[in-house]
Amino acid sequence: MATPLLAGHAGATEGYFLEGYGTREKGVGGAGAADSRDPLSLSINPAGLVDVGHQYTLGLTAFSPDRGYSTSGPGFVAPGHVQSGRGLFPIPNGGYSRPVDEKSAWGVAVYGNGGMNTTYSPNYTSQFFGSPMCPQTGVYCGRNAGVDLNQAFITAGYAQRFGNLSVGFAPVLAVQIFKARGLAVFGPFSSAPNELTDHSYNWSVGAGVRAGLQYRVTDKFRIGVAGSSPIWMSPFENYKGLFANQGDFDIPANITAGVAYDVLPTLTLLADWKHIFYSQVPSVGNWSTLQAPLGVMNGPGFGWSDIDVIKVGAEYRGLDKLALRLGYSYNNNPINSRDVTLNILAPAVTRHHISGGLSYYVTPSSSIDLAAVVSPQGTVSGIERTPLGPNPLRTINLYLSTFEITAGWTHRFEAAPAPVVAKY
């Protein structure tokens, strides 16, 4: 079983990254590179810590994905409409921030990432069932099939203000666990078939760093830029016959830029752009159709391309005891049509994400925070490609839709000592 701090599910929203980690960030579509108001701003831009003040926040997300695939025509994988089981996942988050003085602050945050999860029943049966190449039932002729990737991040940051410029730095520790089932049919095409599938959960640990800047252009207008290095992880030894580079599964780098504008003292508009470098991690970005054994150096991966994400949001704080939020984000699809067969395991194909949220102030210093995110069904289609080669008579259509709701609690011990822009 995964520990409570680890959370995984089938292709969250931005590939396998969530659109936001804190309740406030989720409500505004994941934007916030230029506007920080709680300790989870560490997950976007650590420079914002200097404006957050002394507070803590805790939250829990209930994430519900509907994912699977459908087929047309004869082929190797189980035909028809095939739906993954297990439809609800808990994802925790929490953070604490504290000023050092009027120009500096530190904070810590813990949060779960999206990860990937699919669980396909052995009741689905390939048309080749009973032949030597398909001795068992199941999507890939291996009975229960699927993967479970769980990730947790722990980060501590420091921010310093220099006039209108704030600078932040936050090392990140990551822990992930992985399990794969029902992939024995790929054994003849693996460099290490005994480390390919059907092992228990395998742990991996690693570290990277996130850093950022925020700059006050005027009293109402701010810009922010942040980036995360790759998080270099130890390999999954039990799955070095599946992942390229003998089990490596690093977490890709990303960069973010954003703006925030206070239309009113109580109304802020936000917009962010984010780029995720999936293609730079061989086990994720290399084509699944490469003519090389699974697990070798620079061998086949899931074929994910880099993606760009656009996020926009609004927050209104003009009501008594109540703050309201709306958001929207869009990302292009990381999965190419040539890689659909392997990505039955990770159908991360949602593009649109609509969100809303609120904070209700139980006391002047404490609030109950709520957010919801809906991602309508996304799809990608391609010709089935198995280890036996492409099948031009079979088309696979991957699909994913998601719904999540987050509840949290925030307590503010005191106002920020010298905020760049007042936090109402």
TrEMBL record:
It holds the Pfam family Toluene_X. It is a multi-pass membrane protein. Keywords: Cell outer membrane, Membrane, Signal, Transmembrane, Transmembrane beta strand. GO terms for cellular component: cell outer membrane. InterPro entries: OMPP1/FadL/TodX. One of its GO terms (molecular function) is long-chain fatty acid transporting porin activity. Its main location: membrane. It is found in: Cell outer membrane. The keyword ATP-binding does not apply. This is Hydrocarbon degradation protein. Belongs to the OmpP1/FadL family. The keyword Signal applies. It comes from the Bacteria. It comes from Methylocystis parvus.
